[in-house]
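Database export, one record per block. Field names are fixed; values are copied verbatim from the stored entry.
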Amino acid sequence: MLRSAAMRVLLLDLDETLYPPDNGVLERIDARINSFMTDRLGFAIGEVDAERIRLRDRFGTTMRGLIEQHQLDPDDYLRHCHGVDLSDLLAPDPALRALLVRLPLRKAILTNAPRAHADQVLRLLGIADLVEHVIAIEDLRYRPKPATSAYETALERLCVNATDCLFVDDMLPFARAAAAHGMRAIWKAPAPAADDGVHHVIAHLDDLEPLLARLMKDERST
């Protein structure tokens, strides 16, 4: 097994980073968000999709945008939008588990999702016991990535410096923010792309293993 030199923590995003995109998880949650916005906040059905996306893109999460622009009880919102069973969409992933076991870094999650959702995803994927810390939106005081405070909170919880972290996210703005904060940032891109504002781009989590091997070889030679 590889042995780590300077890098100590693999800090991973959750949704569509640990599992493939478009498997229905986020679509199910988006539908719940839409129903909350229409039923509780009075958004028009024909406009709610665009407004949800606009708030998410501007504020990091739709919830943060609703907090900023509407009176919102975040705990009520999270219960409604994320209190869904995902057992028909996610299953244990032996290949993912084996990969994480082989990577010789501490494993942690930094997610804009609530803790209950993160715990369910990790349990269904069969990797909960491999994750040392889950830093969820409640821990971030509802200030999501890419806010600087989100990365600062993660580093405080993990008791490490930014340079100790290898960060992976499927959202380019979040990976860029991690890089700007001093982490080695990897974008898990949906298609081949340039490393614009990040250190590395990968297509699949499996690509982490050879990448980490190269990085650690470089560390040993310096």
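Remark 1: Confidence is low (pLDDT under 50) at residues 1-5.
Remark 2: The chain has two domains: 9-19+91-221, 25-82.
End of record.
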